[in-house]
Amino acid sequence: MKNTGTAILRNKKSAADREGAGCHAQVQQSVDHLPKILLVGTPNVGKSVIFNKLTGAYVTVSNYPGTTVEVSKGRGRIGDTVYGIIDTPGMYSMMPITEEERVTRDLLLTEDPDLVIHVTDAKNLERMLPMTLQLCESGLPVILVLNVMDEAESLGLEINVRKLESLLGIPVVPTVAAANKGLDKLKERIREYGKSAA
Amino acid sequence: MENLLHDFRYNENLEEAIRRIEGLLKSAYRISKRQIALLLLQGDEQIEQLVDASEPDSLQGIKQVVKETREKFDQPLSYVIALERQELASRIAADVITQKPKKASRVSEVLSRLTIQPLTGIPILLLVLYLGFYKFVGELGAGTVVDFLEGTLFEEYINPWINGLVEAHIPWKPLQELIAMEYGVLTLGLRYAVAIILPIVGFFFLVFSVIEDSGYLPRLALLVDRVFKKIGLSGRAVIPMTLGFGCGTMATMVSRTLETKREKFIATFLLALAIPCSAQLGVIMALLSSHPGAMLIWLLFMVVIFLFIGFLTAKVVPGTPSNFYMEVPPLRMPKLGNVLAKTFSRMQWYFVEILPLFLLGSIIIWLGNLTGVFNMLLSLVEPIVRLMDLPPEAAESFVFGFFRRDYGAAGLYDLSSTGALSPRQLVVAAASLTLFVPCVAQFTMMIKERGLKTAAGMAAIIFPFAFLAGILLNALLKFTGVL
Fold it and tell me: What is the predicted pLDDT for the residue at A28?
């Protein structure tokens, strides 16, 4: 933590102060000393749904951008390992503009995640990929999730997942999180990542 | 197959700058030096502070590199970098995506367009308000369900039973009054919380969750963008504003997603003044549902106040309106499971938050009664209440309202169920109570988000304004003879 700037620490603290206020369900379980998984991505792609599915907790999920303005932390067992899973407010790029985007970047800069899951909307893959590239450029271990695949398919979009994996050099998992599709595959990939890191 | 990402390089000038900055960075960072260098090149001040904190000596040299690199390009470096990155992204996307003919039905697209265009969008909005809120929350929730819980269950069975028990077993009158009777913890506090507010809020949260999950809110944002711009807000602000109808506290927090300080200020102020929260709204619907004309006047009055004050605030608060940019998600069929889970979690949160406050409210009123402070407050408020042509008993609701808006609204509901208020009095009372100070929780959030000075200033304006608006509305209605 030596190299964290004071501005970041201040932000982090004030975010913690605000926890639990309001009618949006949030989750604050202790995730200290657990391997950490950070869920990031642009607003309204389904990060909170995936958070709920991985942790079995409930944070508020809606169909509009900006539902999550606070960080939620929960524990989830995947395989034999208990992970600390962190849900973040949406962000568009590594260069934050609004306050809640900054919250997420601060996490990337301070939390030292064992794994970053970049959740994207498969319909808008082209617009979402630059963020994947930035996460990879940052040297973070990334899994790319193509969520709401059902809507992409009904728009007639077909995505060659294996080719995408090899072009990017990271695991790519298609999901329909709200309908529980692809989550087992995601967990499997997380497990594999855990093994290769160990 | 090649790994495009691994082989990806920016143009030579940028790569050279990245190499030089990477060379100058001595500390270890949580993210790669390459990304740190890229962010520094894009002028990220927070990263500069980060570097300055751990290795101030390197910063001078880095700034020099950034400056030299900037001079090599016509466009800002952040633009150049984003552009090259997007080119790679597009190349990858083109490689992996095949566009097949659409399978989707057009229904949702047509519906989506209809909700955004003013000509069809406004009738749709009115229909949603009428069916969802007036009919479902107002008539079914606040009418039928509350009538049963409050009127039948509490007034006919629970309260007489408690009063009887207390009278039989507790000899001391003040203690009797603490627990039961007119303002008792159980007979008033618990009754307000369980039988009036909770069912109304529950019905409201249910409708609101369905609307949220359908994707209607962002479309509403597009619809009202033009109006919002006039009052210095971007359509983006519709999200915190509509959330305010659910819970002003939460909405004040969500105003964080707005981009400019000015927008946040205007949104916070309007939320505190002109947007009633679900509890208030539900009770007001219940109050006015027997007089459609009264409800229409209340609605018109609130819209006028909202626009007028918003417009005024935008004129007074310096700054330029920000540009509207928002993702519009597709219209989706709400999932019953999520709607129920969300409604339940909100009701739970709400109940846990208000029950102690309502009980505490009863205790404070009891104390106030015992010491005479309550009567003193009442006598302070009574003249103002009389100026609004309201019966003196309405003063109680306003004193409750100091404590919590929904508490005050519940008091008003209690009063009107005895038939003590005429339609005009109902509108006036409902309107000024809507404008009245936000609840303690929202005020606390205002302090947290906007600072004590700003929050206190807002409250200082809102107090007299609420009364003044009530007095004026009453005079206007009386003068024109509308109600």
Answer: 75
Task: For B156, list phi and psi in degrees, rounded to 5.
Answer: -95, -30
Task: Please report which confidence band the pLDDT of residue A14 belongs to, taking 50, 70 and 90 as the band edges.
Answer: very low
Distance from CA of B425 to the nearest CA of A (A): 32
Picking from A134, A167, A176 by the largest number of B CB atoms within 10 A of its own CB, the best residue to mutate is: A167
Across the interface, do B35 and A110 touch by the CB < 8 Å criterion?
A: no
Contact B93 A126 (CB under 8 A): yes
Q: Is B164 exposed, middle or buried (0-12, 13-18, 19+ CB in 10 A)?
A: exposed
Say how many CB pairs under 8 Å bridge A and B.
Answer: 218
B79–chain A Cβ distance below 8 A for any pair: no
Compute the average pLDDT of residues B3-19. Answer: 88
- Interface with B, mutate which of A23, A129, A132 (most B CBs under 10 A): A23
- Pick from A5, A58, A167: CB nearest B46: A5
Task: For domain A6-197, give the CATH number.
Answer: 3.40.50.300
Rounded mean pLDDT of A150-157? 90
User: Would you place residue B195 in the very low, low, confident or very high pLDDT band (cuts 50, 70, 90)?
Assistant: confident
Round to whole Å and give the CA distance between A32 and A83. Answer: 10
Q: Do residue A94 and residue B35 have CB atoms under 8 angstroms apart?
A: yes
Q: Which of A95, A137, A168 sits opposite B44 (nearest CB)?
A: A95
Out of 1.10.287.3510, 1.10.287.1770, 3.30.390.10, 3.40.50.720, select the CATH number for domain B4-96.
Answer: 1.10.287.1770
| Chain segment B98-132, per-residue pLDDT in tens | 988 876 567 888 888 898 888 998 899 889 888 88
Q: Which ipTM score applies to this complex?
A: 0.84
DSSP B260-317: SHHHHHHHHHHHHHT---HHHHHHHHHHHTT-HHHHHHHHHHHHHHHHHHHHHHHHHS
Q: Which residues contact A85 (CB under 8 A, 6 or more apart)?
A: A31, A36, A37, A39, A51, A54, A55, A73, A74, A75, A76
Query: Domain segments of chain B: what residues?
Result: 4-96, 118-480
Tell me which residue has tokens 């100026």: B387
Question: What is the spatial distance between Cα B288 and Cα B31, in angstroms, rounded to a whole number?
Answer: 58
Confidence label for B320 from pLDDT (cuts 50, 70 and 90): low
In chain B, what percentage of residues exceed pLDDT 90? 27
Q: Would you state the pLDDT for residue B120? A: 92
Closest by CA position to B413, among listed B197, B148, B227: B197
Judging contacts by C-beta atoms under 8 Å, the chain B residues touching residue A92 are none
